[in-house]
Design goal:
CATH topology of the largest domain: FAD/NAD(P)-binding domain
Number of helices: 18
Helix content: 25-40%
CATH class of the largest domain: Alpha Beta
Shape: globular
Structural class: alpha/beta
Number of domains: 3
Radius of gyration: 23 Å
Largest sheet: 7 strands, mixed
Distance between the termini: 17 Å
CATH architecture of the largest domain: 3-Layer(bba) Sandwich
Number of strands: 20
CATH superfamily of the largest domain: FAD/NAD(P)-binding domain
Length: 529
């Protein structure tokens, strides 16, 4: 039986961050991964077209660029290079206009001012507010709950950031936030689109905070991508871990986590091998799988078992990848080429699509998040072509189709093709002739996503809903809110734990820090192990 100080289950960014931090502390660490390849939802390949690199899941990484954890690892020394598109984000508006977010705030503001007098200064005022409080907000959101240090630092800066006025702003739904601050459509649609990266309804509290977080990160650190594909971030984390003595094993699916004396001690692999974890097990798996499948029912605390009965996944996802023989033939080209695209006719159209998903309906006009990857990183495909993707949310349980085709949500291949046609039609309206450029098209439905990463249950990409009833102290169940699972020696380090989804490594780092702290306490009190 092989033995390590810690076994980390899952090689996504959270797992590799946890493993790196434990290895930095001198622990022997093994990472086990069920898939043949590393990375979880941070992977890339040439499997759509041999001359094109497509990111299988996630693609743009503002949270990684803003994360103190990721920055502290010096991944540039291990082969990571960040690339940026000319513009961060673009949203095509009716009439041929574009809302464009540029990393130069003055340029962003000037374009807003051209469309609506006063919006430029209102945008700069929002940026100045973020200058005062943004770093503390990010640090607080990515810290274990409660975020004591970041909270105290934020309180000290609160008067300069507007006091209770700031608190009100952060609690304001994004639709009202945009309407209250801006008269033009551009800033409103960019804020709302960034809120749409989560599953928060645009008229709900929390959507404004998420919109500000994403939009202001775009304004400050941009929406960068790893050169050569998303897997570049994974490979850099893996190389750093291996340089510190950590080990990684792929094709090593975990069937069970065993306990000895009530403490997590063994990790049982599908092939029959058992690995001992003398100090900690960090599981970067979706919460239902950890508590319902990997642990014996007798090892799960009663309050956790009760809480998991109401655990709520985020909506399903359908993702389409295109290899295009040319650049997107926009009917009205943007003033700068954006890497990230939001596709909707406006805030109302976006809100309607998100509401339809919340109501259990397949959206008639899906709100799409998309990425021009070659525009952002020219290594992704031959010159003059485009590696493009778009994804949208659909219900986990479908009650009907808001469109006219009667899609039933079982997502067989025929229904996926028809829904991908619905998505592609949105590009065709903005870029006539789009379809004639398609060399290859790949559609990943909910089952396809889950088969490539078991954490994406039913195509849910955030490890559970981002709505307020399942955040902070309520994530994944009421009373937790930290990496501790209720099973000594076992830590939840994936997106189902606070602070949730996104490529920031915070959940993995929180789990590693908790494991180290508990080990120090056990040594101090003289307990063995």
């Amino acid at each position: 039986m092989t033995s390590y100080d810690a076994v980390v289950i899952g090689s996504g960014p959270n797992g590799l961050v946890a493993a790196n931090h434990l290895a930095d502390a001198g622990w022997s660490v093994l990472v086990v991964e069920a898939q043949p390849d590393l990375g979880g939802a941070v992977r890339s390949a040439n499997d759509v077209h041999p001359d094109f690199v497509h990111d299988t899941f996630s693609a743009f990484y503002p949270l990684a660029a803003a994360s103190a954890t990721i920055r502290s690892f010096g991944l540039e020394d291990h082969g990571l290079t960040w690339r940026h598109a000319p513009a961060v984000l673009g949203h095509a508006l009716p009439g041929g206009r574009w809302a464009i977010l540029d990393r130069d705030r003055e340029l962003t503001a000037a374009r807003f001012e051209d469309d609506a007098a006063g919006d430029g200064e209102a945008w700069l005022e929002l940026c100045r507010l973020w200058d005062v409080i943004g770093d503390e907000l990010i640090r607080g959101l990515l810290s274990p709950f409660p975020p004591v240090r970041a909270g105290l630092a934020g309180l000290a800066k609160l008067p300069r950031a507007g006091g209770l006025g700031l608190v009100k702003t952060l609690l304001t739904p994004v639709i009202d936030l945009g309407r209250n601050r801006f008269s033009g459509e551009g800033p409103r649609v960019l804020l709302a689109g960034n809120a749409g990266h989560s599953d928060l309804p645009l008229d709900s509290p929390g959507s404004g905070l998420f919109a500000l977080l994403m939009t202001m990160m775009g304004q400050t650190v941009g929406f960068p991508v790893p050169e050569g594909g998303a897997g570049g971030l994974t490979r850099a984390l893996a190389r750093r871990l291996e340089s510190r003595g950590g080990e990684i094993r792929c094709d090593a699916r975990v069937d069970h986590i065993g306990t000895v004396g009530g403490r997590a001690r063994t990790v049982h692999l599908a092939g029959g091998e058992t690995v001992t974890a003398t100090r900690a097990v960090v599981a970067t798996v979706v919460a239902p799988r950890l508590y319902d499948e990997l642990l014996s029912p007798s090892d799960v605390p009663d309050r956790v078992r009760r809480g998991m009965k109401t655990f709520q996944l985020d909506p399903s996802t359908i993702k389409v990848d295109w290899a295009l023989s040319g650049t997107i033939p926009w009917g009205s080209p943007p003033p700068e080429a954006p890497g990230t695209l939001h596709v909707a006719d406006g805030v109302g159209d976006m809100a309607q699509a998100i509401s339809q998903v919340s109501a259990g309906l397949v959206p008639a006009n899906p709100f799409m998040l998309a990425g021009q990857m070659t525009t952002t990183d020219p290594t992704r495909s031959p010159a003059g072509t485009e590696s493009l993707w778009a994804y949208t949310h659909v219900p986990q349980e479908t009650g009907g189709d808001a469109g006219e085709e009667g899609l039933d949500g079982r997502w067989g291949r025929d229904d996926l093709e028809r829904f991908a046609d619905r998505m592609q039609a949105r590009f065709e309206r903005l870029a006539p002739g789009f379809g004639s450029l398609v060399l290859e098209r790949r559609i990943l439905g909910p089952a396809d996503l889950e088969s490539r990463d078991a954490n994406l249950v039913g195509g849910a990409i955030n490890g559970g809903t981002s709505q307020l009833h399942q955040e902070l102290v309520f994530r994944p169940v009421p009373g937790l809110g930290r990496a501790e699972t209720g099973v000594p020696g076992l830590y939840l380090g994936g997106a189902s734990a606070h602070p949730g989804g996104g490529v920031h490594g915070a959940a993995g780092m929180n789990a590693a820090r908790a494991a180290l702290a508990h080990h120090r306490i056990r040594r101090f009190t003289g307990r063995r192990g």
